[in-house]
Amino acid sequence: MWNGRFIAQGLVQLFMQFPKEIFNIANPIAFIAVGLLINLLVRRKIREVNPIYLLLTYCTMFYFLPDFERAVLWLSGSFNYLWMPLIYLGYF
Questions:
Q1: Per its UniProt record, what InterPro entries does this chain match (predicted)?
Q2: What is the DSSP letter of 74?
Q3: What is the full per-residue pLDDT of the chain (92 aa) written as tens digits?
Q4: Domain-by-domain residue ranges, the chain?
Q5: Rounded to an integer, what distance in angstroms lies between the CA atom of residue 82 and that of residue 1?
Q6: Cα–Cα dist 84/25, whole Å
Q7: Using N-to-C axis directions, what is the helix angle for 20-43 and 51-64, rounded to 10°?
Q8: Sequence-ordered strand ranges (E) for 1-92
């Protein structure tokens, strides 16, 4: 079936082939990268990223993502709701 989650589900299938430890290492890196890319989208230069704003971004992500465990910590949810924004923000 082809739908808007094709890439995310493909990544889920790919990561399901490897030990869970690989996902456990890659997922926090993706979370950090999303927060950093959000700040880079606003500031445009890595030198202009304020650590206070970065901390505020991570707190906001933690607070406003609905059902944080399923959206960020769960393998399938993280590829749909964390890794796809990472890919989208990477284009900017």
A1: DUF6056 (IPR045691)
A2: S
A3: 567 788 888 899 999 999 999 999 999 999 999 999 999 988 877 777 889 999 999 999 999 888 888 888 898 889 988 999 899 988 87
A4: 20-90
A5: 22
A6: 17
A7: 120
A8: none
